Structures are given as structure tokens and as C-alpha cells.
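Service request form, structural biology core

Requester: graduate student, group of Dr. S.
Request type: structure prediction, single chain
Budget code: on file
Notes: please return the result as C-alpha cells.

Sequence provided:
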Amino acid sequence: MSRFLQDIRYAVRQLRKSPGFTIVALLTLALGIGANIAIFSVIEAVLLRPLPFPASDQLVWLNGKFPLSDQAAVSPLDFQDYRRDNRSFSCLAVMGYSPGPANLIGDKPKQVLSQTASANFFNCLGTHPLLGRDFVLSDEQVDLPQVAILGYGIWKRDFGGDRNVIGRTIRMDGSTLTVVGVLPSDFPLLTEAQVWVPTPMLNHWMNIRFSHSLKMMGRLRTGEHSDNHKPIWMRSLCACKSNIPTQTKIGGCSNGRCGKCCWAQRVQFYCLWGARLDYCC
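Core staff response, request fulfilled:
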């Protein structure tokens, strides 16, 4: 022990003799330790911590397939075919590929981020609205959205957390929308959307087979997991897709990939961590 203390005292004396070197060494150590702590904190939150949804191991992303890529989005018509003929999933749902800016008109007009979602999207995630309801199939049967679901943040900030907001009308991008739900939380790693509207399946742009603009998600039935029963649900999707008149396919039908329900940022963090993103297919 005394020898160790002597070494410490000697090291301190040497550092005092070279203050410039000491400062550089301490700053280097501080930056290195701080950077590693920051990176691991993000990786733990995004990669290692279970997803904030019930039975998250039953959630999978389902990609479309182009001739040059098997990680394409899914077209609205393809999604409707999959949903109609689905046998393996307890539910299938889609969301817009990314949120877009929209003008929310009120006492203080402001720009918000809105995103489309299909019927039962939040129920499929396992998230039930804090107030009101999820989108239903009848909400989709329109040319332009007629209803909206508010994110938790914008509800608290711009609507004062008013629990009587359900049934209230708002004006967004010139359209009048009836508020039918409020989410219990926002999903910052999934999307930055503040206002959600249903996918208007009767809109002209939703009836173009090759308009790949939706991200499709599925929840496997209770007792099944994405890694354990791949052949069953992949065969079901392939059989469904064989009856659809399109040149595109679901990723898994042609050696494609369908990751567990994770966010796009995870790919970047895996690369940062030096690990390879392992797909379930």
C-alpha cells in the first residue's frame, strides 16, 4: 500500500511540473469518458431498453420490395389487400412514411407536424388513447380527413389539457377536423408528429398501386413471436401477395427483411456502436 501511495505522490509531482500536459490529459480523459457515457446512454435507451409498447416482441415492420431494394414503403392499395387477406397477424396497420408540416388555425395560428395513420394503428401498437378513441375503418372512407387525434404534448400546450376537447373542431390546412382522441404520450423516436389524421383511402393519391408511401406494421397473434414463427406468417403473406396484381412484393417473399418494430434511428446507432443490425428475415 505504501508503495502505491509513493507512486501516486510521484505522479502528482510530475504532473505539477508539466501543467500544460496535465491540462491536455485531463481534458482528453474528460471528453473520452463523457462521449462514451453519452453514446451508451442513447444506445441503452434506443437499442437495449424494451420498446414502450405491450408485448413489443410481437411487433414487426413489414417492408415492400422494389427491383433494387427490399426496404421500400408499402402502397395504400397493397396495404388494403394485405389487411383484407391477413391470417397471421392480430392486426395490420400503417402510418405515413414521415410527418409533414401543416398549418393549425386558431387563436394563435401555428405550424405543426401531422401524420397519417390507418384504422386501429394505436391499438395495434398497444397504446390506447388517453381520451376518446382510435381511428376506425369508417374514418378512412373519405377523400380528405375529417377527424384528428392530438398528441399529448400539443394537447397540454395548445389546448390547455382540456379533457372536453373530444368533439371539438379544429382547422388545419383549410380543412375542418373533429378531434376524436388524445394520445397518452408522444412517440419522439417513432415520429415527431403532433397531430394525427386517418389515411384517406378514397383520395386519388391513395389509389395508385405504385405509390409506396406507407410504413406497414403488424402485431403477431398472442403466443407467437417474430423470431419463432417466421415461416408461418411469411408464407401467409406470400400467399396473400400472389393474388395481388403488382410487380412489387412484400420484402419477406423475396429474401426481404422485416425488422422488429424499431425506429429508423436504430440503424445509425448500431453502426455507431460497431454492431451489425440483425434483421429477423
